[in-house]
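Key result, reporting period 2: structure in, sequence out.
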């Protein structure tokens, strides 16, 4: 069976399509591949596909016809000054600005083109023969490989990597054998898939182009940074002359007091009147002076050195020194100053002494409170007949005869709730308290001289449950169930026992409580 082909060489030696010639042997065409005479089967009376066929007895397969035609069209492009599409370029290089931040320079062209001014087919470079080498007006060369039946293998690409110019492969492997001229031209110009054969060379070229752009990008970024640097310094100068500029507070170690609370002493450090700014030659450092203010007071009018830096390391210093470093705030994406205090070991030592003194004062106060409370309880226990009188005196309560009831407590309802909150509830901090457990507390029975019968304790438990439910409603304790209430572990959770007592007291329509030893 004769091989069907759509392209041939006419009598003038030019490539022609089956639709461009006469029918039969009158076409006067020869095979592109083997050079033998061809017969054109393109009669208008036939409904079959038009094609060229070899004369009987030919063994030509015509496999390289489309390949050769494509190379011929590339040569035609040179005479037309036609532009063809190349694969995209992308490359990047990186450097650093004056702050040490990475600057990336990129070079990319999504649809680069080259205008063909010259095209030469079957060009040899050592052991490599390239289908076509095209060049533009500047002399830039690009190799073109046409992929019809065999794509470039990895071994082939290693050979092409030796070349010092770009080589692209255009894929027309899926193009029909009888593709027409204009369609094939369009495929070669832009429509067919194409890729770099020696992409390592292309990447290196893109890298060099991006690298050439990098110094200017760094220069532009540095100019912006230097401008911001000086602007922020001017801004600090203006603000420091009008008001204090706060810094990070100094804090002492955390101490645990006798009552289990933690105490930390802090001092708010600020600066004022930054002045005498002097820039270095490169403009990336500056020095100045400032007044230090601690808790709103000048620190003995102490003047500290100030260092402004774009990329400097925070200085180590044995004397107090203020360091402003320009940083990039990623949250708001702006350049700003961050301040650091250096060389404040002596200040920290002084703060430790202050903290130790405050701890001793706080612990002494706690001991005094404990002694006062214990003394009151002892007094209460030794004078059972005067319990009501002593409690009224302690809580500034005026009672009327109607206020008294027995109800398992032997004391007015307006007093037992206050006593319970002050002396019993703190014993359950950080754990659960059940009304029955609290009603059986030995302190209650001993100091209040209460009845210890089962009925009396049941009445007390009911009253304590009502009180805990009230404290739950005002969000001072947490209810676990009907008989369990969680008492917060820190006294501040109440917050302060005096406020808790006032809250309970007001619920009983009484006058405010006056407990001086609970006030801060």
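The corresponding designed sequence is given below.
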């Amino acid at each position: 069976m004769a091989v069907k082909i759509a392209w041939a060489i006419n009598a003038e030696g030019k490539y022609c399509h089956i639709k461009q010639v006469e029918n039969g042997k009158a076409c006067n065409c020869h095979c592109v591949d083997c050079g033998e005479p061809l017969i054109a089967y393109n009669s208008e009376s036939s409904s079959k596909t038009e094609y060229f066929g070899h004369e009987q007895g030919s063994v030509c397969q015509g496999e390289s016809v489309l390949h050769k035609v494509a190379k011929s069209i590339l040569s035609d492009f040179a005479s037309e000054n036609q532009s063809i599409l190349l694969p995209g370029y992308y490359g990047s290089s990186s450097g650093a600005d004056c702050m040490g931040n990475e600057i990336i320079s990129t070079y990319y062209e999504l649809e680069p083109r080259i205008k063909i001014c010259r095209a030469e087919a079957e060009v040899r470079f050592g052991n490599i023969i390239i289908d076509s080498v095209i060049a533009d007006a500047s002399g830039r060369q690009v190799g073109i490989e046409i992929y019809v039946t065999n794509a470039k293998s990895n071994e082939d690409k290693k050979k092409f990597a030796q070349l010092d110019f770009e080589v692209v492969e255009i894929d027309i492997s899926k193009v029909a054998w009888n593709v027409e001229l204009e369609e094939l031209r369009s495929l070669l110009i832009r429509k067919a898939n194409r890729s770099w054969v020696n992409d390592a060379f292309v990447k290196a070229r893109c890298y060099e182009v991006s690298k050439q752009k990098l110094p200017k990008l760094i220069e532009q970024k540095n100019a912006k940074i230097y401008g911001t640097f000086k602007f922020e310094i001017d801004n600090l100068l203006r603000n420091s002359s009008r008001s204090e500029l706060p810094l990070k507070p100094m804090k002492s170690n955390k101490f645990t007091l006798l009552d289990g609370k933690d105490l930390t002493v802090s001092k708010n450090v600020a600066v004022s009147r930054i002045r005498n700014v002097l820039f270095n030659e490169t403009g990336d450092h500056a020095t100045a002076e400032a007044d230090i203010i601690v808790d709103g007071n000048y620190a003995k009018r102490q003047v500290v050195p100030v260092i402004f830096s774009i990329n400097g390391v925070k200085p180590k210093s044995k004397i107090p020194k203020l360091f402003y470093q320009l940083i990039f705030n990623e949250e708001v994406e702006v350049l700003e100053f961050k301040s650091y205090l250096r060389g404040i070991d002596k200040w920290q030592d002084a703060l430790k002494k202050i903290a130790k003194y405050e701890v001793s004062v706080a612990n002494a106060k706690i001991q005094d409170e404990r002694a006062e409370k214990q003394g009151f309880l002892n007094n209460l226990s030794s004078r059972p007949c005067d319990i009501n009188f002593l409690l009224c005196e302690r809580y500034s309560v005026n009672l009327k005869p109607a206020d008294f009831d027995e109800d398992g407590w032997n004391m007015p309802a307006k007093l037992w709730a206050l006593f319970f909150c002050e002396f019993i509830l703190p014993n359950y901090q950080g754990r659960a308290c059940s009304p029955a457990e609290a009603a059986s507390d030995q302190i209650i029975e001993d100091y209040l001289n209460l009845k210890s019968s089962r009925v009396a304790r049941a009445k007390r438990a009911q009253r304590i449950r009502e009180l805990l439910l009230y404290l739950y409603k005002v969000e001072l304790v947490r209810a676990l169930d009907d008989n369990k209430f969680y008492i917060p572990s820190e006294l501040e959770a109440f917050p302060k026992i005096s406020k808790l007592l006032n809250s309970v007291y007001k619920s009983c329509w009484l006058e405010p409580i006056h407990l001086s030893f609970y006030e801060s």
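Residues 67-207 form one domain. The CA atoms of residues 261 and 490 lie 7 Å apart. This case is discussed further under Risks and Mitigation.
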